[in-house]
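User: Hello, can you help with two protein structures?

Assistant: Certainly.
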Amino acid sequence: MHIVQGDIREATSIFEAASFDVVTSNPPYLNQSNGRVSEASHKAIARHELFCTFEDVVKAAAKLLVLAGVFIWYTDRFA
């Protein structure tokens, strides 16, 4: 396993298309209009769509996953 930290919006320029069996993400759980945004920047970035959106994550995952790949993203925001 090799962990790469970076901007999900740049993932397709770092990795080849269809090169992963599984893609998982520390999601932004809430969009900016839902919930209280933490004053602690590291918490705000992890919890809210401040630097990327759900759409950004899905687009990158779709390009990086092999045909039968698995995308793991936990949220209850669609419940």
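That covers the first. Now for the second protein you mentioned:
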Amino acid sequence: MDNQKGKTKQTDKVTEIKTVSTNFQTEPIYTVDTLALLLGVSEITIRSHTSTGKIKGYKRMGKWFYFHSDVVNFLKGNG
């Protein structure tokens, strides 16, 4: 039963992906926890990749955010 609640929570996180307009285009933006769920890794891994510069992130109001295009570049190895 607890497993189902966990899955619902994960689904809620994935559906709350925000979008932001950059250069007149709308682009999804992710938080650390949402990005970790989407990539199937831990939040610690995302933070580690951010601190080493492997993935580009932006810190605003004490939280890290990631543009979809930066995630794509990271996955392509162009981070």
